[in-house]
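ARCHIVE CARD
SHELF: 3
SLOT: left
DATA:
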Amino acid sequence: MRRAIRAWLVGVLALFMLAGCQHVDSEAYRPSSQQLLAPAQRAQLERAWQAYAAGNYSLAMQRVDSLLAAVEVAEAYLLKGRIYLDANAFELANAAFQKARQLDPYLRGIYFQQGHSAFLQGAYKKALDLYLEELALIQSSPPDVQQFYREADQAALPVIYRQAGRAFFLLDSLEAARRFYMKSLALDSLASETYRWLAELEAQEGHLQKALELAEKALQKAPGDLENIYTFGRLLMQNGYLEDAVHFLQLVVERQPTHRGANYNLGRALMQLGQREAGQFFLERARQIQQLSGKIAQARLNAYQSQRARPWQELAALFIQAGQYEEARKALDVAIFWAPDNLALQNDRANLALLLGDTLEAVQRYYQLLQRDSTLADVWLNLGVVLAEQKQYEAARRAWLQALRYRPHDDTLRRYLAELERRRGS
């Protein structure tokens, strides 16, 4: 959910920047970035948003603070609040959002982000009120403001309706939730998450066949989404389509072996099909995963209540243990935000890029680390491994020789170099 909201905000920024390149009537509304910032400063703000979108919170904050030292603009405070919000520093985030509203009461996204802050803290009624404030702002703004934000508002409205629907759902106002989900779908019929949440609502009301149909629509809109596959598989099981359920739940377990719900429901489906041994295997694995999930829940609570790197690093380690690499990435990005000079964290983040399958990012991060400290033997070693896998054998050899300078008695390094020479000679 955070990723979708981040993508929406970055999209809104792009619309701001495009509007800034167009001719605007001198009497018409313009956000403070267009009134106060020179082109180079607007470019700096855009680069800050790009760093934020990439999860580089430290760099994004550096760019924002540098800009704010020269001139105060609402959009910069909005971004500052978003960075703090991703780091779960709720008071700092809300202070930045309040400052943004003081500077520009018509700027889009402020009420929504404050609502999201409340939502993340479990204050669903407060979150709902703030989501509705964002809707009211869009609908009641003066004509020139509405004209300026026309495209941004079109993109934002289905997101706001969907999130308000989610808040209604969690407040047990199911009919209101359904109404807002339908409003969202009327504006964006391609949003798979809305169909999935609507399926969850119908299932809670006992309308299992209707829920299954909606889950199938969600899967059609985004067939690769793991939660869409899981929800469809779970509802197939609940509707009695056991063999089909096994197929889809196995797809989830293959991609994420530590998905507790998929293991549990797969075990149940297999038991009902008479495959007791296989069913017991997955039910037992679900029980073991639940124990790890309990540790993750406690670590998440510790991290969310902290503004230090260590709890976030510990949370990331548990996510990696659970195979939830994308969640681990987010946790490590926050840890690095709180301790940007911690090179061990930076190395962990580079190694995680490999687990995520992004060798290009991993190599870039290794080189950035070595620019800061060329004596890091582990980094040279890991860099060499990646380069060797890419068949860049000479570059890998140089990397391992560098590692050997700082770890001359390392048998692993010598073994790697010997194997490399064997490959080059064959």
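SLOT: right
DATA:
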Amino acid sequence: GLCGGVPFFYNTEDKTFLCGEASLEELKKWATGGIMKGAHSPVIGELDFNYITDGIYIGTNQCCQTHFDEKLRKEGIEVDFSLEENRVDAPFGVKYYFWIPIANHSAPTMEHLDSASAILDKFVSLGKKIYLHCKNGHGRAPTVMAAYLVKKGKTPEEAIEIIKKQRPTIHLEESQLQALTNYQKNIKS
């Protein structure tokens, strides 16, 4: 299973994967060492999030910049899943943390969509609530969420409709819509 239920840390950039204490040490190291070079300084904005479906929430990166937000913990969310280009989360207080870096306004690769859908699927099947976010929760996070729904049999249009109903502020780029269409073809082939 996922490290046998202990916390773990996976960095898709250099493929480090750590289980248990090691992962917490690693997280602590960068979190206490300040935010990574090149990361944008936290924007003082509102925590803005919406429940979509299957225990998955989409929102802004205000969730987790010094620790995992109390409001989200009260919702029973145990998974922080970031798609930010730079590592800005300090996910203290959350059981699981994932980071798949995707550049702002750009489309996830097939590999991104595949891994992300598998992660969402796994946690949904475990009955865990997930907080999925990019910077504003308008493009990358909805794209990944839509891929998860496409994998479940929805068309990209239906998937986007489901998300938009719960989070009207989403707006996917042309390249992100194209990625979903390609992803659907990939699944079918």
